What does this fold into?
Amino acid sequence: MSVKPWRSVLYVPGDKPRAIEKARTLRADAVILDLEDAVAPEHKDAARGNVKAALAWRWPGPLLVRVNGLGTPWEHADREMALLAGVDGLVLPKVEDAATVHALHLRVPLWPMIETPLGVLRAPEIAAVPGVAGLIVGANDLARVLRTRPHPERLPLLHALSAVVLAARAHGKVPLDAVFNDVRDPQGFIRECEQGRTLGFAGKTVIHPDQVELANTAFGVTDAEADEARALLAVWEQARAEGKSVATYRGALVEQMHADAAQETLELWEKARSGPY
Ligand code: COA
Ligand code: MG
It folds into this structure.
């Protein structure tokens, strides 16, 4: 089993060189340099140039680029630049079917965004495409198209959020939760992270430096959780050594899947501690 933390994945607008530089110093598990929604049409070319330059720098973690979508005037130039410059993965906006992802014939990890109704309905096929590393929810676009109203617990989006988790997990891919727009509301952000984690997301896409550590904490493993996982594994190993098929830990049933979960928890804890940051 090999796990990697994707607790915080920071979007950085491609037309903000200062923010791009700052992103390198933050402890985000990954960074997405954005050429799409965060960049106005008249800045697309300059942004592509900035991103190309940034791809040549050393980054502490995976560096992804969100290219402009299919059918836009910039899609080819964006993809070509990112691939030639050695990107760690491409974020593909508004993906609605598996065939178009296949047809791109790209050899880098792909991160389709699920941000339209059709994308949600076809998320399982999209997640199944080889080369897809994970799915990212785009809640702003989705809310717009669905005509939902804002809701503190994201009730109108719950079905879509769970559908994305289900699709990604069904194929061993990484589900990443949507952004939280109000960068001056840390409490609201933390609540939404907790909800995302509870739903099964591996981490959250974030838009501001202040959100990075909060997401790392919300989706991370505490030392106490790591201790618990170690204790459960010890009980499990003891039980297995005695030839038992199941065990109990603190009065609760422990089976192989609980031991696997504890193992994964420990790996995530290790990686987040020893990682590049
Ligand atoms: N990545 C890296 N650095 C960022 C950043 C980001 N996403 N957002 C802000 N910063 C930096 C700023 O450059 C500034 O750095 P400085 O103090 O060295 O100049 C510092 O963080 C403080 O920024 P602040 O003034 O609080 O932000 P703001 O009010 O100017 O901007 C947003 C707020 C939301 C517009 C801005 O954070 C942003 O553009 N976020 C990304 C949006 C995006 O990528 N959208 C597409 C995906 S949904
Ligand atoms: Mg979008």
Summary: The first helix runs from residue 17 to 23. The chain has a mean pLDDT of 96. The CA atoms of residues 43 and 246 lie 60 Å apart. Residues 10-13, 18-19, 22-23, 34, 37-38, 179, 183, 207-209 surround coenzyme A (ligand 1) (CB under 6 Å).
